[in-house]
Task: inverse folding
């Protein structure tokens, strides 16, 4: 158990940061270590096994028992998927989450039961009395969505349901103040920094006055350092909260408003939750708390009602298939409903593809790129990948496949897995993989140098067509450009010979899009192929990587324009 007495804010589970990653880890823990005590020895043994798995992301060194506790004691334990006392066991909720057909539904139930305080998080002062995810959902619904900044600034202060109205009013006042900053010539980042400084200084006035500013994670020695650490922590909580809510398939993130919002078609589910899930926390013994937490059927959701399910499915399937619905079990209906929603999502994506090909969304694509560059979108790397896919789909004349996952509103949910290209463009006589990154400087080269080349080589072996790669970043690092230049001039069997990787800055990519939008005749795959062949050939005729990059930049200016 952990003690939270003396804290000033609520918290959301932050480990793992992406909730879908925990399923493999819980499965490994409970299949290999079930029945054992969760002590330092088992923790070290578990982490060693974990570090050898294909899905593992992290470092297999350091205080590995601490790292094991960080992965398991947070989300898996706190959300009731595993029981660690007296020995390691997979709970009934955990079984449904790992092996059941509807992990998103179980995940939602467990989020709604997470409360502060609890037998897992003890507060002897009595200050805590809230279900963080439930109150977050209520604020999202009541306010038409929330930004990550609003969650980090204000929702984090909701330690008791009695503070709900105060927190809501603070958010509304913040929005009113933010709406006038441009007219006053105040940069948005400066406004946010000032708001954080004011709120945190008020929230932690006592600690600052008594110089009690050393945090558990690091030794901060000044009030400014202390407040900066708190600010980072609050953003970490807000980021994780958004990711966890989106994993329920009830919420989406809108890059235009920069808010997490209820998916319109799922509003009735949220209304039911807010009307039926009890706001007061459960005050009971640890055994009774566990019984409630570990149950895979608590709380009751709207999707548990058969009549509601039939009505929802009837709105999504042809009339000819509706007559048999009444004879189906609730479990069968849930499967049918999930499949119908997937079909609708595919229809939605196909509609988006067709609209993109008309170029009517060109201005929106450019605007989102600008917001990403100006750091106005919280999920920048994910939405950068998605927006590049939109741009390439607009150019069309091929099959453009984004390997990221989307939610039911068509917004990106998870990025492309690390073992495949971000985007694949399939044309009649050639193919292009596209890799995007928000990283810059030396980190860009370290993160993207080898993986991009490896993805190129893997794709080249998988097709008999001519293959290219386009690498796009807001700012290109010189080491990355030099690396791709040398790979084209060198035969490397691992990468399929000469790796034809074309680096483009986001500004250059936007010039290509502008040229395509202005051209009388929209680009065809032959023009795309010509651009790539010429850009790659320059690597052979250039005197250096700088000369190569200059030639590509000049080529970009005239590509797709009518001659």
Result:
């Amino acid at each position: 158990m952990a003690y939270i007495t003396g804290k000033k804010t609520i918290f959301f589970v932050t480990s793992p940061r992406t909730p879908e990653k925990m399923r493999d880890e819980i499965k490994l823990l409970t299949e290999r270590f079930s029945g054992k005590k969760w002590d330092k020895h088992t923790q070290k043994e578990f982490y060693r096994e974990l570090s050898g798995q294909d899905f593992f992301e992290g470092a297999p060194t350091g205080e590995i028992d601490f790292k094991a506790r960080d992965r398991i004691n947070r989300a898996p334990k706190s959300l009731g998927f595993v029981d660690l006392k007296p020995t390691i066991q997979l709970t009934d909720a955990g079984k449904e989450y790992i092996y059941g057909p509807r992990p998103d539904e179980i995940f939602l139930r467990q989020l709604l039961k997470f409360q502060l305080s609890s037998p897992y998080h003890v507060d002897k002062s009595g200050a805590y009395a809230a279900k963080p995810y439930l109150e977050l959902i209520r604020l999202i619904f009541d306010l038409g969505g929330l930004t990550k900044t609003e969650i980090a600034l204000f929702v984090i202060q909701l330690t008791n349901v009695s503070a709900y109205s105060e927190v809501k009013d603070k958010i509304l006042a913040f929005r009113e103040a933010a709406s006038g900053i441009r007219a006053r010539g105040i940069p948005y980042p400066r406004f946010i920094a000032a708001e954080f400084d004011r709120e945190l200084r008020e929230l932690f006035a006592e600690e600052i006055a008594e110089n009690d500013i050393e945090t558990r994670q690091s030794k901060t020695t000044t009030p400014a350092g202390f407040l900066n650490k708190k600010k980072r922590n609050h953003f970490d909580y807000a980021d994780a909260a958004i990711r966890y809510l989106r994993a329920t398939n009830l919420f989406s993130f809108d890059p235009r408003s920069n808010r997490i919002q209820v998916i319109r078609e799922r509003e009735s589910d949220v209304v039911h939750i807010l009307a039926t899930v009890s706001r007061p926390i459960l005050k009971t013994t640890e055994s009774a708390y566990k019984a409630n937490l570990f149950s895979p059927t608590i709380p009751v959701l709207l999707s548990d009602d058969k009549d509601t399910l039939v009505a929802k499915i009837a709105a999504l399937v042809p009339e000819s298939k509706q007559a048999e619905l009444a004879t189906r079990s609730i479990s069968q209906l849930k499967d049918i409903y999930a499949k119908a929603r997937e079909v609708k999502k595919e229809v939605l994506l196909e509609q988006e593809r067709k609209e993109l090909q008309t170029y009517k969304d060109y201005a929106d694509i450019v605007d989102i790129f600008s917001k990403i560059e100006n750091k106005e979108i919280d999920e920048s790397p994910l939405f950068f990948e998605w927006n590049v896919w939109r741009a390439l789909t607009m150019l069309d004349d091929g099959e453009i496949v984004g390997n990221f996952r989307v939610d039911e509103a068509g917004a990106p949910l998870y990025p492309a897995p690390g073992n495949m290209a971000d985007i694949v463009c399939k044309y009649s006589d050639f193919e292009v993989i596209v890799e995007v990154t928000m990283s810059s400087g030396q980190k860009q080269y370290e993160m993207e140098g080898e993986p991009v080349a490896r993805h190129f080589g893997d794709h080249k072996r998988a097709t008999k067509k001519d293959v290219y790669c386009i690498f796009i970043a807001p700012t290109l690092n010189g080491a990355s450009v030099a690396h791709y230049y040398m790979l084209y001039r060198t035969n490397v069997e691992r990468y399929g010979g000469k790796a034809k990787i074309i680096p483009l800055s986001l500004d250059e990519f936007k010039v290509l899009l502008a040229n395509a939008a202005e051209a009388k005749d929209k680009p065809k795959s032959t023009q795309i192929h010509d651009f790539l062949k010429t850009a790659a050939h320059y690597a052979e005729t250039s005197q250096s990587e700088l000369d190569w990059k200059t030639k590509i930049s000049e080529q970009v200016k005239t590509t797709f324009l009518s001659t």
User: Anything to note?
Assistant: The CA atoms of residues 282 and 288 lie 9 Å apart. The two ends are 72 Å apart (CA to CA). The chain has three domains: 130-280, 305-348, 357-558. The chain has 23 helices and 13 strands.
